[in-house]
User: Fold this.
Amino acid sequence: MDKLHKKDNSSEASSTGFNFGQLKFIFLLLLFIISLLFFFKKNFDRFELVTLDWRFRLRAEQVGDPRLVFIDIKEDSLKSLGRWPFDRKYHAFLIEALTEAQASAIVFDILFSEESPSDMELIVATKKAGSVFYPVAFKLPKGRRSNEFDAPLIKELREVCAGYGHINIIPDIDGKMRRVPLFIRYNDEYVPHLSLSVALRELDIPLKEVRKEKHSIKLGEKINIPVDEQRFCLINYLAPWGRAFKHYSYSDVVRSYYQRKKEQPPLLDLSLFKDKICFIGLTATGTHDLRSTPLEKNYAMVGIHANLVNSFLQNKFLRCLGKWSNSLLGILLILAVLYIVNLKKYPIVVNFCLYIGLVLIWIIFVALAFVFFGIWIKLVFPLALSLFLYLGITGYKFIIEEKEKRWIRKAFSHYVSGEIMEEILKDPAKLRLGGERRIITVLFSDIRGFTTYSEKRKPEETVNILNEYLDAMTKVIFKNKGTLDKYVGDEIMALFGAPAHESPEICAQRALRTACEMMDVLKQLQEKWVNEGKAPLDIGIGVNTGEMVVGNMGSTLVMDYTVIGDAVNLGARVEALTRQFNNHIIITEFTYAYVKDIIEAKPLESIKVKGKDIPVMIYEVIGLKPENSE
Assistant:
């Protein structure tokens, strides 16, 4: 349309988005919050691990590969075979039993770093089996490099075993076991984890075909093991101890083999172990090989190897989302928070509920990603960032909005009714700054002969009676949800339809009710003034409905909320015609079109408006129809 209309569009954009000052505040707030959160990063990392454990427990228990079984050295074995460590002849005997049963692999989670009198029996059994794996342990001052064994494997066993691997595991900051380094560099050699060494043999993949990439380790062409920045692999714990795999007693297996050799009925059918990968480890309660994991406080560490081998054989891994992917999701969460806090049409309580809903959606999203896809998405840091951002912006907006409301209350408290004031304060966007074209009804009221009236009386008497009149008329305007535009001496100018938006029909009808009530109130005042011995006042009222430009207008120093346009001038002119026609209320045809059903009126004549070729019909208002009068 015109410049005023274009200016209003820019005002509209600022009312529905963040202005430069708000964006600057948000940017600085984000920098402060991120710096603060990184300062307490260890605390948030600890909370993140707690949520990871919660996701483990949320996931349904899973059953491992049936080829994987445990041979537990638990309380009954200690009772039957004596104190730990056992004589190594028992281990040799166990290897013979499992070899005869055609086990696919025999994996010891027992360190053999020092020589013993029974080593020869163990060495012979190991060599004969050709499928036995042993562990080693390194001293790791930091990272994944070492130049010193903590517990080496005796040379003779290392030379005859099917393979060996390290069993080093570095606990997280809360002491729980969640990740393992798949390789440790020992001098110039890369030593695989014991579980990886077993899996490579089962998958028939040579160690030289293992490829280390940036975020993964590839076994051949099909298996891609995700690793984090430190090249650690997350352990995919399937279930609490004893529920994911079959378990057998060490002493029961040894006794069964002995019984079979003596041609006695065996306690166990050793054919159960055919083609099985057998894990042997210490699992008795109170022993040193029980540690805390996401699923339980005391978990036998031999279980780590089985869970890892299960992942390698089934190609099912947990993946920790990378920094950039986590950052991108965090940015999306922040944008969603910014969108919520910028929804001005809702009160703060509703916005808070929307934020809580967003948080719940985020928690459900990261939980489902882990439960169904094994993806670990960071939860705590993004939520903490979003919470502090939400609180910071909401607090800032609350302060700014309260300041804005105080300004609005101060600027409009004398011009609109309390009801309209509350409506504006609930949605300040209704108060458009600048110019806006809108169909509004304007009412002009003027005291007839007031100049002559005031010249014949003392100033104090004139002011008192004028104030009494203006006070009574203003109350009528406010009662009908009108806006007092201004007093010009004894003239009153009122608006209907601004700043609160209403349909043209409702605005026009409110204006006419106001005009009729003003005349009723004036009659009461006239009677009062006559009784007090004062000369009564008389007024004329003009009403017009049309398109006007409404908004704050003036200079940078002084502004006034008002309306301008031809329709305003026409309203003032028809008020002046009340003297000519010697009546009290005149309206234009434009207003009459909206109010003809509620008033009794008679046409007067068509008048020519300055600058317009088409004459305008005007009507004298007799009063409200009986069914529409209060």
Summary: The first helix runs from residue 3 to 16.
